[in-house]
């Protein structure tokens, strides 16, 4: 999922709705920008019991994170 | 669980954008969210999105017509007879920021709990059937206080 073009609150809304659809063991890859999304998307996923497996910079200002239920 | 409750009173376009932004943002980061629509705020949740003569009694009908629904929410400043919210929506789309209807849909998708105020519905002579089906319940102050207890509350 790519949320690099989204703004608050839709960055978080779209991630939350996508995470809700996952079954145990499923993974979701999220492309996001640094700053608010990079700080809060992984943090809130972890708070909700998901595991953040990786967070890699793919280009300047853009990161790819991998979340698992 | 962390909790945010918002009293949506104003029914202004811009303030409702703010309230729904807070509501959906909070729900997205796992807050329990309650929205309590009261007075002008009830216009946001009417099934009829334009102007219509709903309500009991002729005075209530006139008020409901003048207030209108979701499409008639005025901007709190620089409303320019209702053109401003339309221009703002155009800008929001252009800049890829969620519009008011997208925010309301997001709140519904995130299962934000929505309530309507019994007392103001009584003044305007409107019933629960006049509102979108996502309105969970018609409540009064004690129930709202019970729901919002131990969380944060905003009045918008």
Quick structural summary:
The complex is a heterodimer of chains A (69) and B (156). With 69 residues, chain A is an alpha+beta fold.
Can you put this structure into words, describing what you see?
The complex is a heterodimer of chains A (69) and B (156). Chain A is an alpha+beta fold and 69 residues long. Chain A has a single domain (10-68), classed as Translation Initiation Factor IF3 (2-Layer Sandwich). Helix content of chain A is 33%, strand content 33%. A 3-stranded antiparallel β-sheet of chain A has the order 1-3-2, covered by helices on one side. The mean pLDDT of chain A is 96. The longest helix of chain B has 16 residues, at 13-28. In chain B, helix 5 links the parallel strand 3 and strand 4. Chain B has 6 helices and 5 strands. The model of chain B has no long low-confidence stretch (mean pLDDT 97). Chain B has a 5-stranded parallel β-sheet with strand order 4-3-2-1-5, sandwiched between helices. Chain B is α/β, with parallel strands linked by helices and 156 residues long. The two termini of chain B are 23 Å apart. In chain B, helix 1 (13-28) runs parallel beside helix 4 (100-109). Classes of the chains: A alpha+beta (69), B alpha/beta (156). Chain A binds chain B through residues 5-10, 12-13, 15-17, 40, 44, 47-48, and chain B through 21, 24-25, 27-30, 95-98, 102-103, 106, 109-110.
């Amino acid at each position: 999922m790519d949320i690099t073009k989204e703004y608050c609150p839709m960055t978080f809304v779209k991630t939350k709705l996508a995470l809700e659809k996952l079954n145990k063991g499923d993974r979701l890859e999220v492309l996001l920008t640094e700053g608010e999304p990079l700080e809060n998307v992984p943090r809130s996923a972890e708070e909700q019991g998901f595991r953040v497996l990786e967070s890699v910079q793919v280009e300047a200002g853009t990161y790819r994170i991998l979340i698992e239920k | 669980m962390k909790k945010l409750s918002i009293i949506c009173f104003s029914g202004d376009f811009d303030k409702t954008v703010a309230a729904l932004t807070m509501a959906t943002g909070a729900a997205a980061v796992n807050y329990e969210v309650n929205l309590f629509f009261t007075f002008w705020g009830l216009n946001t949740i009417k099934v009829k999105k334009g102007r219509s003569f709903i309500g009991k009694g002729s005075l209530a009908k006139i008020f409901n017509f003048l207030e209108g629904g979701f499409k008639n929410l005025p901007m709190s400043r620089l409303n320019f007879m209702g053109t401003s919210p339309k221009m703002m929506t155009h800008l929001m789309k252009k800049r890829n920021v969620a519009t008011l209807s997208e925010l309301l849909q997001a709140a519904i998708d995130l299962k934000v709990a929505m309530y309507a105020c019994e007392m103001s519905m009584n003044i305007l002579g409107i019933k629960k059937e006049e509102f979108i089906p996502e309105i969970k319940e018609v409540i009064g102050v004690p129930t709202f206080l019970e729901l919002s207890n131990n969380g944060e509350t905003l009045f918008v």
